[in-house]
Automatic annotation (TrEMBL):
Keywords: Transferase
InterPro entries in alphabetical order: Ig-like_fold, Transglutaminase, Transglutaminase_C_sf
Protein name as it appears in the record: TGM1 glutamyltransferase
Organism whose genome encodes this protein: Toxostoma redivivum (California thrasher)
Domain of life: Eukaryota
PANTHER family: PROTEIN-GLUTAMINE GAMMA-GLUTAMYLTRANSFERASE (PTHR11590), PROTEIN-GLUTAMINE GAMMA-GLUTAMYLTRANSFERASE K (PTHR11590:SF49)
GO MF terms, alphabetically ordered: protein-glutamine gamma-glutamyltransferase activity
Length: 107
């Protein structure tokens, strides 16, 4: 009895949760994924690496009043926390031409 040939291509899906990869990310905002396998019949080992850049949230800046030379102007900064946990120890710092010293704001 003939054995049907194995498919030439197959897809395997794996999910990596935030709790699994979070301890390994650090300040890099990237993950290096490695897939490896072995062909039983030939003993050949296959491997592939992929560097995945994690997307950081975009900041939206909006002036809340008219900008006039020598006058303060309120600025609204909006972003969405993409993480499944609250931020802690985060800060925002505004810099720009004409600002004598950066103004930090705790989040």
């Amino acid at each position: 009895r003939a054995v049907p040939p194995a498919p030439a291509e197959d897809t395997v899906t794996m999910t990596v949760t935030y709790s699994e990869y979070q301890p390994h990310v650090g300040d890099q905002d990237a993950l290096k994924l490695t897939a490896a396998g072995a062909v039983q019949e030939t003993g050949q080992v296959l491997a592939k690496e992929l560097l995945v850049r994690l997307h950081t949230p975009e900041l939206t800046l909006t002036l809340l009043g008219p900008a006039m030379v020598g006058q303060e102007v309120p600025v609204q900064v909006v972003f969405q926390n993409p993480l499944p946990k609250a931020l802690s120890g985060a800060s925002l710092r505004m810099e720009g031409a004409g600002i004598a010293c950066p103004k930090p704001a705790a989040l």
